[in-house]
TrEMBL record:
Domain of life, per lineage: Bacteria
Protein name stated in the entry: RND type efflux pump
Annotated InterPro entries: AdeT1/2, TRAP_DctP_sf
Organism: Acinetobacter kyonggiensis
Record's signal peptide: 1-22
Keyword vocabulary terms for this entry: Signal
Coiled-coil intervals, chain numbering: none
Amino acid sequence: MKKGIWLVSTGLLLSCSSLAQAKQDICVFDLLGKAGESYKMMEEWALAAKVWNADVRLIAYQNEEKADNDFKNGKCDAIYMTTMRARAYNKFAGSIDALGGVPSNAIAHKAIIYVLDKRNIKRLKTSIDNVQYEVGGIGQIGPAYIFVKDRNINTIEKAAGKKFAVLEYDKAQIAMVKRVGATPVLSDVSDFVSKFNKGQVEMVGAPAYAFKPLEMDKGLGTNGALFNFPVLNVTADLIFNTEKFPSNLGIQSRDWFIKQLPRQFAMVKRLEEGIPAKYRMQLSKEEKEKYQKLLRDGRIELTKQGIYDASMMTVLKKARCTVERTNFECSLGGE
């Protein structure tokens, strides 16, 4: 009898030990694969995770849809991908990339720190089809600007009828492009810039992260430009299946991501400075306000539709009005 109990106990211990030592696979999306800044950062995260009793293996993807499908099918235990796609797993954190919601790096910094704060731990966990997901971190990629093949498309009205590459899974982008009268051309992160470069679309939104490696100067040619007005802030989320990781990993991981923010914002600054000044086009004050109003109306409508999280919209507005107190929207309700 004693021998039987001993064998069962030993088996349980070995089983627990095996579970603790099991490797966790992380799908990591980066446009540049293993050569990209996001992948390199996740390599450092993987080293830190060893201290948190996680033994992870990174799998690089340059196709975000494939990475997401592999995560859904259980081939990966966690995924690092753009927040726009990660919104499907957590609408609260996923709404930080709302159109026009974060118009500067200063506001982006405040927003990311707030989302990852310990007070929001419940909001960062969701259950979908009996699987519990948790946001383990948010990485800054940078503000996205509108690139045009013809710098004469310098007003909202002139965008009417023009083809604009949009991410097919982001209903917000599609809605906003239609709102200005442009024609949305459904694309993926893997090919939206190539469509611009090949002349298949006349407009596209992208961060500085994509400019040099994806050779956007080819799409701009001699008459193209980028509006020096960010339409959204691009971030990436680490989403993991909580059953596959130590219980305290979420808190430790989010603290780690917060500590990386100064370096990430420095990276964004470096990449933006790498875009030649000849491509930058300043919008008039009147035109900027038109865009702000358009984006604001769009956010309110998209929040009503359930695409954006209402509480996050309130947080982002407070952040904007803390930094830019004289902005017209600060005296308005609705967000």
